[in-house]
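Per-residue structure
===
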Amino acid sequence: MPSSTFDEILDLEEKFYDDGYQQGLADGVKAGRIEGRTFGLEKGFEKYLESGKLHGKSLVWVNRMPCFPAKFSAQDANQQSKPDLPANDQPQKLEKLPSLPDNQRLAKHLKVLYALAESESLSTENTEEAVSDFDDRLKRAQAKAKIVERMVGEAKDHNEGAENVVKNNEGNIEDASLRNTKG
């Protein structure tokens, strides 16, 4: 028997290993790109959503300030949202939010918050510089929003529900309000 026959058989395992490795590498690159794109879209959406929330808050606060002209009046809202009201139906009275104090420092913070959070000047390009700029503006806008929240007395309590959290006998944290309902 020629020795080349056995060499081909012994090389078969190495060939299958190399083929499997190359196929796995190609599949891994493809799956990694898909997973990376999905993750990037999720994170981008979360960041843009947060930016939109901050922009909405800034609009509400600006419209509550007496030193800024009203952007959208209640009368305009009734006319635009219900143009074809029957004669016997009365439009509902819209309640106004209370005005904020006429404070120049607060007005300055609101202008900066509005400028940081408005979406038209935010870049949505997928470059290192654009993403870094977006993240920087978002962090600065979040900090300004916290300052404004404290100034207008709408600061969120970050310890909400902390008084209901206790440790059970196993050392796990559970909600005390749920513990009281257990029988």
In short: Residues 3-64 form the longest helix (62 residues).
